[in-house]
Write a structure and sequence with these properties.
The chain is an alpha/beta fold. The chain contains four helices and five strands. The chain has a single domain, classed as 2-Layer Sandwich (Transcription Regulator spoIIAA), CATH 3.30.750.
Length: 104
């Protein structure tokens, strides 16, 4: 996980590799530490997503709704997009194909 703040103030949390039980806790910590109005979770470098990661994403969606914060996802991999669809995460958070698209 890496975190960066864009010039427009959006915070981007980038995920590389597998997002599973071993790494979803780190994503949760990164999301909790990211303070700001707009948050982008970039799964562009992610190769695998399991149910523990889906739980973190759903939690981020619920937290955003409660706090009025904007959270977006970036995903391009068809397998990851399919997991997001099956778990209905794509109905809770907007899914974009690039960070530029998600942060605008």
């Amino acid at each position: 996980m890496t975190t960066e703040t864009l010039a427009d103030g959006a915070i981007v949390v980038r995920v590389e590799g597998e997002l599973d039980l071993a790494t979803s806790g780190a994503l949760e910590e990164a999301l909790d530490a990211a303070n700001g109005g707009r948050l982008v979770i970039d799964l562009g470098g992610c190769t695998f997503v399991d149910s523990s990661a889906v739980r973190v994403l759903v939690s981020a969606a619920r937290s955003a709704e409660e706090s009025g914060r904007t959270v977006s996802l970036v995903a391009r991999d068809p397998g990851i997009l399919r997991v997001l669809e099956i778990a209905a995460v794509d109905t809770m958070l907007p899914v974009h194909s690039s960070v530029d698209e998600a942060s605008s």
